[in-house]
Amino acid sequence: MERLWAGLRRCFRSQAAKIAIGIIVAILAVLTLWILPPELVDVSGGKDLKGKDRVDAVANERRTVLAALAGLAAAVGLVYTALKHQLDRDSNVTERYTRAIEQLGHDSIAIRLGGLYSLDRIAADSERDRDTILEVMAAFIRNQSKRTEPENPPDTDVATTLALLTGKASWITAGKTRIPLDLTDANLTRANLTRANLTRAILTGADLTAANLGGADLTGVHLDFTNFTGARLDGANLDGANLTGANLALAHLDGAHLTGADLHGANLGGADLTLARLNGSHLGGADLTLARLGGADLTDADLADANLNGADLTRANLARAILDGADLTCAVDPDDPHDTTDSANLTLADLRGADLTDAHLAGANLTGANLTGVIGLGSVTGCKSVIGLESATGLPPGFPAPSA
Hints:
35% helix
């Protein structure tokens, strides 16, 4: 099909080909008018006509054939015009694309911006070019961002490209490409991606230190080993995202949606996860040291072997959570370690082998929780007592009170 299209393109552009085609069509039309009418007369029962009667019959058929040829010529003309328009359009798109690519390599940022906007317009107009343009623009971000100093925000051209690809009106945001936006290992330090749509994107290993992703849509995005140190992700949608081994130290994730997210081995030390939705998330082996989880929903979350040392679990919901082997040492309410009203919900939680040394569990609901082999219950292990356990509810019958 491509060869046929290329052949047609050459024909339409060649003046000699146009003349040759015109001569052939004219010859065929004359032959048709000369040969076909008598045959039509014979077929219609005019074989026995003689003299003037036959001449008139042939003339009538010739007029009919001429009218048919005129209609056919009109149809061919329409097809020719449509094909010429399409070929001219393709040629124009190719020229615009070539010029835009050349502009991307220019030293002037103004010219580079012109090239980027031109590519964006071509992608909006030409469906078949979108995947190619997406790859070009993504490569531009990856390569150009590496030239920026690590502590500086992206240059204007990189920031503009990000805005074009992640804005609400973007052709990629509308799902009009077959491939995802690949920003693997890109340096996006301090980038402004507020409310950006990054669904289906690949950000594996990217550096988003101190970036602003507040309210961004990162549903199902590949964020494994991405650096979000100090980044703002408050209110962001990270449902189902792959954050394996990601660095989220000191990140702002208050109110973020992380339902079903994979955070195995992630660093969330000192992160603000206040009111975050972490239900069903996978946090096995994650570092949540000093993390703020006040009011967070950790229902059915997997926190096996996670480090929650000093984490704030005030009003956190850990119902049916898996905490076997987790370290909750000194997990307290930083505002008032004796407050029994803002306690965690640990209903049916699996706490087998968890380290609860000095953990703040005053008023906690431990109904149905598995406390087998828990470390830190003074009268059982001889370690320091779990703070406030005497006011906890749902303890197994006869469970010994912690030692003083």
